Amino acid sequence: MGKDLVFITLSHPDDAKSKSTRRCIRKRVMREIGRSRRTRPSPPPTWDLSSLLVHGPLQVPVPDGREAIPRCPDPSNARYYPIALGSRGLQLVQFMTTEAESVYRPFRAIWFSMGMTDPSAFTLCLANAAMFWHQATQPDSFEYAKSTECLTYYGHCVAQTTRRLGDADDCVSEGIITTILGMICHDMYVGTWERWHIHTSGLRRVIFLRGGFDAQGCVVWDCHPKLPECASEDTDRSENAKQSSPVVDALIKSPIIDFRDIGVALWEVSSVAAFLNSNASQPTFFWRRENSTAAMELLMPATRTLLSMSRPSGPMTVLGRAREAVRLALLILLAAAKRDVFLFSSDEMAPLLGKFASLIRQSCSRRPMSEPDSTYSACTNLWLWALTTVSISCWSEMQIQRHDGLYLDKICQLMTLLGIQTGREVIHEAKSTLWIDESLRPGNVVENFISALNERYLYYTTQSA
Predict the structure, then answer these.
(1) What InterPro entries does the database record attribute to this sequence (predicted)?
(2) CB of 333 closer than 8 Å to CB of 269
(3) What is the pTM of this model?
(4) Are 123 and 153 in contact (CB under 8 A)?
(5) Helix (H, G, I), strand (E, B) or coil at 430
(6) Residue 102: strand, helix, or coil
(7) Burial class for 296, CB neighbours closer than 10 Å (0-12, 13-18, 19+)
(8) HSE on the CB side for 126, CA within 13 Å?
């Protein structure tokens, strides 16, 4: 440590103004700067999409052992970038780079690195940067539709892409696919779902032309996936424990097709729940890393399974309503995991919750004379699980939309039919089917739900008496 210190002795305050003292200080301070100026700069990195997908984005190590912060190349040097940048463009790149040190945005590093491979994709990166800049500098007045700079860059990207789609070779290039993927993600972020639909349809045509990821947007529309299942979704995830409960196992083995469908859907999502629960105690696990795609690899296969299930048409039986209730509840559960665990946007929550509420308004407790006892009993338990799961996953949304009273009243009816008397017993029943750990949910939502349900049940039984 002594080699890094220089001691200067002063016998009088005026000695600090002497030329020799000031020269000594200047020499010491400028030593590292002079050394850096004499060092030959390293050549700029090359960017290749196939290499990027294998090795991941550029990283800068952090000395204290934390996760590396994704960074772009020297943000002040325009020669690194796929398009010519003026001072404002360089300023946006600098903002995007430095913001990564303090603001979490999923997939920021991945999309910026992919943008470096193609001029049109990089123009879209500038649109994103302009949008985030305006959000940061005008948090109270920002409106996407009035973000002129963002929309200008976005318009340039669309114009370039449209022109390139007219080229027989370029229209199926990696750069075009990267750009369209970026536009789809941009549309998902700002919630322009009509535009998302156009871009997803276009991507499907491009992929078809090449010979052969749309589940997120399809959840908002609750429609069947448009694109074929990708290879990464077709892998064996048994180690994530398709650890299904005895309840789910019994449904899968049922001779009734609708029950088997419900069992398969629950079984698919149980692997997600088991994986999340087993890692709930690791606060620094992958779900808070901007350069990780593991979250989507975990959630998308189950999401595609639920979206691929048939929808009810015409009048529904008790079993048909229970099947649809479980399907919607599982989609809502995955949306809540995206929002609460991975901090992703979940625009699908509102339309899914609206569909579920409409389904609830049909009777889920009155038994038709034609239904056998065993079928009716099983449906009652499935309804209890679905209502409990959705209530806990969307407690704040339901209170805002005033659905909580409807949900709690239906749960109270089911509690009476099943001989359950407390909210904690309801939670126990839900856990016996499929459950995501309380530590992965915001605040004290489970305890708040139990308290509200106990109060509602007391009122319900008093009124019934």
Answers:
(1) Fun_TF (IPR021858)
(2) yes
(3) 0.59
(4) yes
(5) helix
(6) coil
(7) buried
(8) 28
Residues sharing a CB contact under 8 Å with residue 273, sequence separation 6 or more, in sequence order: 434, 435, 436
365 pLDDT higher than 60: no
Residue type, 391: S
What residues are paired with 59 via a beta bridge?
Answer: 70
User: Letter for the amino acid at 437?
Assistant: D
**95, two tokens:** 């903002």
Give the angle subtended at the CA of 183 by the CAs of 178 and 187, to the nearest 5°: 150
Other CB atoms within 10 Å distance of the CB of residue 191: 12
CB 370 within 8 A of CB 350: no
Based on its alpha-carbon atoms, the radius of gyration of the chain, rounded to whole angstroms, reads 28
For 396, the token pair is 């704040």
Q: Which DSSP state fits 162? A: H
Among 429, 339, 353, residue whose Cα is nearest residue 390 = 353
Instruction: Please report, for the chain, how many H helices and E strands are present, in that order.
Output: 19, 2
Q: Where are the chain's structural domains? A: 2-31, 49-212, 244-464
CB of 109 closer than 8 Å to CB of 290: yes
As a whole number, mean pLDDT of residues 211-229 equals: 65
pLDDT classification of 28: cutoffs 50, 70, 90: low
Q: Name the phi and psi angles at 35, rounded to 5.
A: -65, -40
| Per-residue pLDDT at 220 | 76
Chain center to CA of 239: 23
Cα dist. 236→241, 271, 298, 456 in Å? 10, 11, 12, 44
CA pair distance 135, 123, nearest whole angstrom: 19
Task: Please say whether the beta carbons of 381 and 387 come within 8 A.
Answer: no
Residues 297-348 pLDDT 10s: 788 888 888 988 888 777 888 888 899 999 999 999 999 988 888 877 777 8
Q: What is the largest CA-CA distance in the chain?
A: 105
Q: Which two tokens stand for residue 57?
A: 């984005």
Q: Which pairs count as long-range contacts for 410-414, CB under 8 Å and 24+ apart, including other chains? A: 410/360, 410/364, 410/365, 410/383, 411/384, 411/387, 411/453, 411/456, 412/453, 412/456, 412/457, 412/460, 412/461, 413/364, 413/365, 413/460, 414/364, 414/365, 414/380, 414/383, 414/384, 414/387
Helix (H, G, I), strand (E, B) or coil at 293: coil
Query: Residue-wise over 41-73: b if at least 16 C-beta within 10 A, else e?
Result: eeeeeebebeebeeeebbeeeeeeeeeebbbbb
Phi, psi at residue 60, to the nearest 5°? -115, 120
| Interval 144-171 mean pLDDT | 89
Alpha helices by DSSP H, listed for 138-256, are 148-165, 174-190, 193-209, 215-221, 246-252
HSE toward the beta carbon, residue 7, CA cutoff 13 A: 4
> Shortest CA distance to 8 belongs to which of 32, 24, 26?
24
